[in-house]
C-alpha cells in the first residue's frame, strides 16, 4: 500500500485500471478482492488517510473507542491510496476529478462512498444540532462534548439503532440523556428485543420519549411535539440520528440515483447508466432489493462489486447479488447490548440475546468486520458471506 501526494503528477498506468471511491467497509473489501486478478492496478480514493470504523463513531464521540485503523493494516501492499475526495465522475471520459484538482482515469470504477447524516427539516437543526454519522461530524461532536460538564443534558433525536447506541454511550459517559423517538423505539427489532433495549437504557438513566416529534432546536433546547403537546427539553448537545443520505457525487455527475442520492444499479451492482461503473455499500440502491444500510451488507456488497468488475474484465456477465442478513446487534453502552437474530431478509427471528453476552457478541462482530477486510488483503478471494437472502423487495420488511 502506498499513499500518493495528489499535488504531484499521477503517473499513467498501463494495465487494467480500477479506481475505488471510498475506503470504508465496502470499498476496502472490494479493493483487496480485486487483487485476485494480478493484472489489475487498484487505486483507492479516500478523504481520510486511514480506515474509519464507522460503527465505532458513537464510541469515538464518548471517548470509549478509537475508530481509526491504519491502511497498512487493512489494505494489501499493492493497492495505491490517494488521500483526496472525488468531486465529479466524467463517465463519458472514464475519469474521476478530485478535490485537489488532480484526476484519475479508469477502466472500471467502484463507487463505495457510503452515506452521511440526513438533515431533517427542523428549524435550527442545521445550525445547532450535531451528528455522529461520519468521521467529520463525529469529530465536531466530540470537540463540543469536551466543553460540557458531567450531568449536562443531552438530547438524542432518532430512536433507531444508531440513536440507541449513541444515547447509551453518552449516558455512560455521565450526561443526562433523553432519547426522542419519532415513533416506537427500535422499530426494526421484535417486541422482546425492544423491551430488553428499554430495560437496558433505563439502567443507564436514559429517558426515552416515544411517539415524539422534534419541531425546533436552539443552542440550549429542543422543542418536541408529544401527542399535540409541546415539551421543551433542555439540551447542551442535540444529536440527530434521523437517518442517512448518500453524498450527491453520483447525482451531480449525471448518474441515475434514488431519492436519497444512492447510485442506481442493476441486480448485479452495475450502474444503470454505464457498465464500467459498479457500486457497493450504503451508497447504492440495488434494483429490486432491500438492503439495510449496515456494514453487514456493505462487506458482501464490496466483495461482489469486485467480482463484478473481474467478471467484466474476463468478458463474463456479473452475477446477481446474493447475500443474507443474520442479526441486528445494538450496543447499549460498553457492558450491554441487544442481539436480535433475524431471518435472511432482516426481519426479526424469535431468538434474542441481551446483556453482557450480547455485548461480547457485538464486540466480536465489530472486530470481525475489520478482520474480514484484513484477511481479504492477505488472501484475495478468501472472503465468504451468508447467501440465500430473500431480499427481493424494494421496501423495508414489515415490522412485527
Ligand atoms: C454510529 C454508527 C453506528 C453504526 N453501527 C452499526 C452496526 O452496529 N452494525 C452495522 O452493520 N452498521 C452500523 N452502522 C452503519 C455502518 O457504519 C454503515 O452502514 C457502513 O459504514 C457502510 O459501509 P460503506 O463502506 O458503504 O460506507 P462507509 O463505511 O461510510 O465508507 C465510505 C467511505 O467513503 C469515503 N468517501 C465519502 N465521500 C467520498 C468521496 N467523494 N470521494 C472519496 N471517498 C469518499 C468516506 O470518507 C468513507 O471512508 C453504524 C453507523 C453509525 C454512524
From TrEMBL:
Its cofactor is FAD. Gene3D superfamilies: 3.50.50.100. The keyword Oxidoreductase applies. Belongs to the NADH dehydrogenase family. The keyword Cell membrane does not apply. InterPro entries: FAD/NAD-bd_sf, FAD/NAD-binding_dom, NADH-Q_oxidoreductase. Keywords: FAD, Flavoprotein, Oxidoreductase. This is FAD-dependent oxidoreductase. It comes from Gordonia westfalica. Residues 17-290 form the FAD/NAD(P)-binding domain. It comes from the Bacteria. PANTHER family: 64 KDA MITOCHONDRIAL NADH DEHYDROGENASE (EUROFUNG) (PTHR42913:SF3), APOPTOSIS-INDUCING FACTOR 1 (PTHR42913).
Amino acid at each position: 500500500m502506498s499513499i500518493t501526494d495528489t499535488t504531484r503528477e499521477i503517473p499513467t498506468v498501463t494495465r487494467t485500471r480500477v479506481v475505488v471511491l471510498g475506503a470504508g467497509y465496502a470499498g476496502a473489501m472490494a479493493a483487496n478482492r480485486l487483487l485476485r486478478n494480478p493484472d489489475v492496478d487498484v487505486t483507492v480514493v479516500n478523504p481520510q488517510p486511514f480506515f474509519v470504523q464507522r460503527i465505532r463513531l458513537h464510541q469515538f464521540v464518548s471517548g470509549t473507542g478509537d475508530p481509526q485503523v491504519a491502511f497498512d493494516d487493512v489494505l494489501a501492499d499493492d493497492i495505491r491510496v490517494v488521500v483526496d475526495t472525488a468531486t465529479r465522475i466524467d463517465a463519458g471520459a472514464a475519469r474521476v476529478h478530485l478535490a485537489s484538482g488532480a484526476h484519475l482515469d479508469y477502466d472500471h470504477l467502484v463507487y463505495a462512498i457510503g452515506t452521511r447524516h440526513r438533515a431533517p427539516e427542523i428549524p435550527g437543526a442545521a445550525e445547532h444540532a450535531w451528528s455522529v454519522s461520519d468521521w467529520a461530524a463525529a469529530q465536531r461532536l466530540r470537540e463540543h462534548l469536551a466543553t460540557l460538564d458531567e450531568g449536562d443534558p443531552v438530547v438524542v433525536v432518532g430512536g433507531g439503532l444508531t440513536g440507541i447506541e449513541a444515547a447509551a454511550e453518552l449516558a455512560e459517559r455521565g450526561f443526562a440523556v433523553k432519547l426522542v423517538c419519532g415513533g416506537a423505539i427500535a422499530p426494526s427489532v421484535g417486541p422482546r428485543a425492544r423491551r430488553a433495549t428499554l430495560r437496558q437504557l433505563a439502567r443507564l438513566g436514559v429517558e426515552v420519549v416515544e411517539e415524539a416529534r422534534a419541531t425546533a432546536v436552539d443552542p440550549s433546547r429542543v422543542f418536541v411535539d408529544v401527542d399535540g403537546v409541546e415539551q421543551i427539553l433542555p439540551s447542551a448537545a442535540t444529536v440527530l440520528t434521523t437517518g442517512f443520505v448518500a453524498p450527491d457525487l453520483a447525482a451531480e455527475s449525471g448518474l441515475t440515483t434514488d431519492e436519497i442520492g444512492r447510485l442506481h444499479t442493476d441486480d448485479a451492482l452495475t450502474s444503470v447508466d454505464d457498465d464500467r461503473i459498479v457500486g457497493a455499500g450504503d451508497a447504492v440502491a440495488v434494483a429490486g432489493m432491500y438492503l439495510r444500510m449496515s456494514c453487514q451488507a456493505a462487506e458482501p456488497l464490496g466483495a461482489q462489486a469486485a467480482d463484478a468488475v473481474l467478471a467484466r474484465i474476463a468478458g463474463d456477465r456479473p452475477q446477481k447479488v446474493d447475500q443474507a442478513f443474520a442479526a441486528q446487534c445494538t450496543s447499549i453502552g460498553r457492558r450491554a447490548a441487544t442481539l436480535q437474530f433475524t431471518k435472511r431478509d432482516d426481519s426479526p427471528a424469535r431468538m434474542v440475546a441481551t446483556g453482557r453476552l450480547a455485548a461480547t457478541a457485538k464486540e466480536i462482530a465489530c472486530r470481525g468486520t475489520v478482520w474480514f477486510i484484513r484477511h481479504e488483503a492477505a488472501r484475495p478471494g478468501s472472503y465468504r458471506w451468508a447467501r440465500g437472502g430473500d431480499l427481493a423487495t424494494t421496501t423495508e420488511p414489515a415490522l412485527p
